[in-house]
Amino acid sequence: MFGLSDLVSLVVSAFIILPVVVFLRECGYLLGSFVFGVRNPRITLGSGPRLFKLGIVDVRRYYHLYSWFSHDEIKRESRLAYVCLYAGPILVNLALAFAINMLLADGTIQWQRTFWDRLVFYAFYYALFDIVPMKTTNGKPNNGMIIYEMLRYGRRTDYNHEPFLPSTSESEERYLEEMEAYRKNAEQNPILQRKRERKARQIRRLKHVRQQSKRTGQRYLFKDKKDR
How far is residue 66's CA from residue 153's CA, in Å, rounded to a whole number? Predict the structure, then answer.
């Protein structure tokens, strides 16, 4: 039976554990990029409007959905460079899962074992679907397939017209276009217009109340001084 405790576990898994595992997985790409060098690297967490951008980390409003790593190009291109780049997420997730699992096994971690057990589970989950060569959405290969194709045939995108890792510059341009389209739609949407008008009226009303309160306070202060 799905109870309240299960609901809490679901919320924690969806909004804390999964984003942490995905973020660390995307950081795995940086292992290869630091060794072989990439231009304009970026880790984008989530989707939707941008909340903030700190260095190479771009955080969106829906941070728990669809995160990815992007770059413009690899400085020292080679078969080994691409293998290391795509093996990074696998190695990071495996290292995370084995390290926490060892700490749980020897009793070093005692607090909130269920939380850590789920984190280990999802780390192994992502590592498994990265290791086993397969094609995913729109026929795109996962990291395991990319590594396999490169090691065996030395090819990268001959059967896929889209790059496996998007360009950071192109991603930024696409984001700005999406936000401009969102702004135009918001200006033309009658429901959103009514919401903005209602919010503007509330702000004006609040300012009026504050001004009245300020004037009333000054009037009483003046009367008090006059009585003295």
Answer: 30
Q: For residue 156, report the phi and psi dihedrals to the nearest 5 degrees.
A: -125, -60
H helix runs in the chain, sequence order: 4-12, 18-36, 79-105, 113-131, 143-153, 168-188, 190-227
Residue 140 and residue 218 in one domain: no
Other CB atoms within 10 A of residue 216 CB: 10
Confidence at residue 227, expressed as pLDDT on a 0 to 100 scale: 52
Residues 131 and 204 in one domain: no
Overall domain count for the chain: 2
Residue 163 and residue 202 in one domain:
no
Nearest Cα neighbor of 77 from 24, 137, 150 is 150
Mark whether 131 and 220 lie in a shared domain: no
Q: What is the pLDDT of residues 91-100, one digit of tens each?
A: 999 999 999 9
Percentage above 90 pLDDT, the chain: 11
Would the pLDDT of 219 be above 60?
no
Q: What pTM value is reported for the model? A: 0.65
107 and 172 co-located in one domain: yes
The least confident of 2-16, 112-126, 137-151, 161-175 is: 161-175
Q: Residue 40: which residues within 8 A CB-CB, separation 6 or more? A: 71, 72, 168, 169
Does pLDDT of 221 surpass 50?
A: no
In this structure, are 133 and 218 located in the same domain? no
The domain of 216 spans 195-227
